[in-house]
Design goal:
Elements (H helix, E strand, L loop, with lengths): L4 E7 L2 E8 L2 E4 H5 L7 H5 L2 H13 L8 E3 L5 E2 L8 E4 L4 H11 L16 E4 L4 E2 L4 E2 L8 E2 L2 E7 L15 E8 L2 E2 L18 H5 L5 E9 L10 E6 L2 E7 L7 H11 L7 E3 L7 H4 L8 E6 L3 E7 L1
Parallel strand pairs: 6-17, 8-14, 9-19
Antiparallel strand pairs: 1-2, 1-5, 2-3, 3-4, 6-7, 10-13, 11-12, 11-17, 12-14, 15-16, 15-18, 18-19
């Protein structure tokens, strides 16, 4: 039974939705004979029907007359062009919380569950997304751009007030993210640390290219447990992060339940679920021009980007 991956790719007609089957890229609209499936966002907006249509099309791809091209010769774009909203979980691995507290010279915080805290998220601007093998131009204003390997969930249906046991039902699939952060732009130096207006999340998290995602979306049906996936990040082939999504403080289901209690989730929204220990801030290391980052997540693949 053929499985598939959902991509956005560059064609002669501009960005198109594609299905990767056995290292070949098929145009999604042509393979499914659904003309409206020309973009990944359009597919996600029809996900309840599309997931069956795509699966059937992938299974018949070998006998289809639809044209294909080699994956290695295809320019992949961010899987969703462009997500309606990108939600990013803050401080969601206990080992990462410890390393950041140490870097800041403050005592480690207690387990959020024990003090009644809920998952919390900040937002990345949609246009910060870039794709696999894309070059990221480091912002001139920052000397401390950091890496953060993250599992990303892509929403496939409108969702509001989901219970914990139903939370994952709105997930269409999973991809990989490198949640780049300009650590030296996160605070406004003119204001005292006690000011409620001290933090600048836009400068910190939303510079151009700050959200590499990809290379594709693996359907949720192919990922048995999003809380049991190996996750690694390397810089110039030196491993910096090596963990497992089991180390999350708040599970993806907890995150979705909390988010949907506050705001309606829509097809194409992307939830970045937090990063484990091993970020640059904890090591005093930061990205420089020429560096190549690779983020690998078990059963999904590898996201590669070069800094400039």
């Amino acid at each position: 039974m053929a499985s598939y991956k959902l991509v956005s790719y560059q064609s002669d007609k501009g960005p198109r939705a594609g299905l990767v089957v056995d290292d070949k890229v098929f145009d999604a609209a042509a393979l499914t004979k659904e003309a409206s499936y020309d973009s990944v966002l359009a597919i996600l907006e029809d996900w309840s029907a599309a997931k069956g249509i795509l699966k059937k099309a992938a299974e018949g791809a070998g006998k289809s007359k639809a044209k294909s091209q080699a994956l290695g010769r295809t320019k992949l774009l961010p899987p969703v062009l462009y997500p309606p909203t990108i939600y990013c979980a803050g401080a969601n691995y206990s080992d990462h919380m410890l390393e950041m507290a140490k870097a800041a010279g403050i005592p480690p915080a207690p387990d959020p569950h024990e003090v009644g805290l809920k998952p919390w998220h900040f937002i990345k601007v949609s246009r910060t997304v870039t794709g696999d093998k894309a070059t990221v131009k480091l912002p001139a204003a920052s000397q401390k751009v950091d890496w953060e390997a993250e599992l990303a969930a892509v929403i496939g249906r409108k969702a509001k007030n989901l219970t914990l046991d139903k939370a994952l039902s709105c997930v269409a699939g999973y991809t990989i993210a490198n949640e780049l952060s300009a650590r030296d732009l996160g605070k406004r130096p003119q204001l005292p640390d006690t000011s409620p207006f001290k933090y600048d999340w836009v400068a910190h998290k939303c510079f151009d290219g700050a959200c590499p995602i990809g290379p594709w979306i693996v359907p949720a049906s192919e990922i048995k447990d999003p809380q049991a996936l190996g996750i690694k990040l390397s810089v110039n082939d030196v491993v910096k992060q090596d963990s497992n999504t089991a180390g999350m403080i708040f599970t993806l289901a907890e995150q979705i339940a909390q988010l949907s209690s506050r705001i309606t989730l829509y097809p194409g929204d992307v939830i970045l679920t937090g990063t484990p220990a091993g970020v640059g801030a904890g090591r005093g290391e930061f990205l420089k021009a020429g560096d190549v980052t690779k983020v690998w997540i078990e059963n999904i693949g590898t996201l590669t980007n070069k800094m400039a």
